[in-house]
Structure formats: C-alpha cells, structure tokens
Known about the structure:
By secondary structure, this protein is of the alpha/beta class. Helices cover 50% and strands 13% of the residues. The chain has 13 helices and 7 strands. The protein has helices at residues 2-33, 62-70, 92-97, 115-122, 145-151, 176-195, 210-213, 223-233, 254-274, 281-284, 286-318, 323-345, 350-373; strands at 49-55, 79-85, 104-108, 130-134, 157-167, 205-209, 237-249. A 7-stranded mixed beta sheet has the order 3-2-1-4-6-5-7, with helices on both faces. The longest helix is centred in the C-terminal third of the chain and has 33 residues, at 286-318. The protein is globular, with a radius of gyration of 22 Å. The relative contact order is 0.16. Mean pLDDT is 86; it is low at 390-403.
Amino acid sequence: MTTLADAVLALSLLFVAYTYVGYPALLLVLSATRRRHLAATPPAEWPNISITIPVYNEEAAIGIALERILATDYPPDRRQVLVVSDASTDRTDAIVSGFANRGVELLRMPTRGGKTAAENAAQTLLVGDIIVDTDASIHIPAQSLKPLIAALGDPTVGVASGRDVSVARAGDTTNRGESRYVGYEMWVRELESRVDGIVGASGCFYASRASLHMEMVPEALSRDFGAALIAREHGFRAVSVDRAICFVPRTSSLVREYHRKVRTMVRGMETLYYKGHLLNAARYGLFSWMLFSHKLCRWLVPWALLVALVALAVLAATLPGGRWLGVLLGAGLGVAGVAWVWAARGGAPALLELAAFAAAGNLAALHAAVRALRGQLNPIWEPTRRDPAGDAPAQPQAGEARG
Length: 403
C-alpha cells in the first residue's frame, strides 16, 4: 500500500509540474528549433472590418468603449461597429443609439439568449472581410487594432488574438494574483505562437477571417475558444499578437473571479467536447498535444491534486512517523485558507496572492466539471462586471505585461 501511495503521489505531482512548468519548458525548446515567424507587414490597403461588441446592461461602460473604438487609428471608412444588445434592461441601448450619427449600429435581441446566441444573430449584418470581437469593459489603445488586423495578412493565420494586460485602479490591492496569472498565460501563448499557434483566443479582443467567423457555434459553447479550433479545422492557425495590447480591468474580488472561472470553464469544457476530434494527434499532430497540454491538463490538475492528497493521507496513516506528513498536510491546507481570506481583503504578500488565485482556479475547475457532467450549461450570458479601465490605466505590476 505504501509503495502504491508513493507512486500515485509522485505521478500526481509530476502531472501538475508538467502542466505548469514542463509544458512551457518544452515550448521553449521547440521554439528554438521550430520557430514560426508571423508575417505582420501592414497591408498596402487596409481591409474592411466589422467590430462586434455583445453587451448586456453595460450602461456604465459602453459609452467609453465606443469612444475608444472610434478613436483607433483604423480608417473609419473601412470599419463597421455593431453593438449587439442581449435584451438589455438599462440605458445601454439608448447610449448606443446616441452614436448612430457616428456610424455605430445597434442590434437588439428580443429576448436574452446569451453571448454566443447574440454573436450568431449578428452574422447576417456583418460586412467586413475580418470580424473583430471585443468587450465593453476593456480599454483598446488607439494603436492596437492595426497590428491585430495586419497579423491576418499572413495567409497561414485565421485568427489573431490580442495580448491582455491586467490592470487595476490606483490603490486597488485586491485579487492581484489574477494579474500575475494573466502575465503567465500571455507568455505561454507567445511561446505557442512561435511554435505553431495558440489553442484559444482572448475573448476580450480577437479577430477572425469572416469565412471562419460565419461558422455557427452552439449557444452553450465559447466562441473565442472555438474560434481557434475552427481555424485549425480549416487549415489555419491562431496566433497571439504582441503589439495588439488591450487593458483588462482586474476582477474586483476573488469570489467574483471564482464564479467567472466556473462559467467560462463549463463553456470551455463543452467546447472541447464538441471539438474533441482535434485531440487526435494522428491527424492534427503538434496542435493536438498543445490543446491537450494547455486546456485539458489544466482542467485535470485539481483532480490530480485530490489524488495526491489521498496518497498523502495514506502515507501519513501507514508510515512510521507519518503523523508529521499529516501535520504538513494540515498546515498546507491552513495556509491555502489563510491565503484565500487575506487575498480577498487585499494587501496579501505576492506569493500568498498567487496561491489564493491558484486555489480558486482549481476549485472552479472542479465545480465546472461537475456542472458540465450534469449538463448544467446555462448559455444565458452573465458578463463579469469590471470597472471600466480609465483613460490612463494603472501601470501593470511586474510580470503582468509579459508575453
């Protein structure tokens, strides 16, 4: 029993280490031997684009968002802006209508159907050769749109994703672990882009060829994740574009971030199940390995940690002096609990903040898996409420802009 517990513990911890350390390390090695360059030369003539902004009750953010989009340096005569209101009940629609004389269009859904349903309904109104999807709560700098579009000048690229930079208002010390995790995630996407391509786009800011965007996505699934998968099915790759920066306000609390992760993970799991054939390495090769490592392994990490906890408990009960393992196990769980409470209040040390964010993410993955297995998909969209980033976002902390 002890030997088995030892083996199970070792394998579980090795799996976790592979997911967060081993996989990026292998990408680093591959990027040195198999580096794919992104041909992102500005075109002689910028293509027609359609920018879609799905919203639900975003009266606090939509006006600022539209001003920023209209202020980008993209040629106005080659830019369509379409706001899709998912049956908003506040002043969102009235605010959008106030931009009609500046070329902004409004599509109002008669009843709430969720984000993906709203995006599907908008397809018949889109006129651009490239479709840009974005959110109302983020800040897109004026110079970020052109690099995103230029990336699609590469004939191998079907989807171009922006680089998220997590920001907070001055003096806000809550949920800083999110910012550090975003920096890590953008770094991994940069490595994937060098090797072959990313396995999921940033839902805040990404662009697709119109032919790919027009493929219908079931309402309970995630279009931003699905966009990269659809691109691969059609022989294109998705890439992360360093210069296409978007500032994403940090979620105001760890609890709200937990609930956001549960919602997005349920949709992500269902999307991967729907496109599960892309895990067939015999057909999709390197991309299948990246999809498995980046997505599926991360969702399996909390299960591996649970198995490791059981193995530790067995060892604590059977080994001479094993009670010390039990004490260490209890102390570790206690530290995780303290980290969660302290990080939620703000001002926790960086290591504890990251530990709390990791704990929230893994608990959310367990919760999401249970919901997905029960078929609790809930396609109705409940957007994460973030404070709109100000005109001069706070400087990101160390590591946030990495990638």
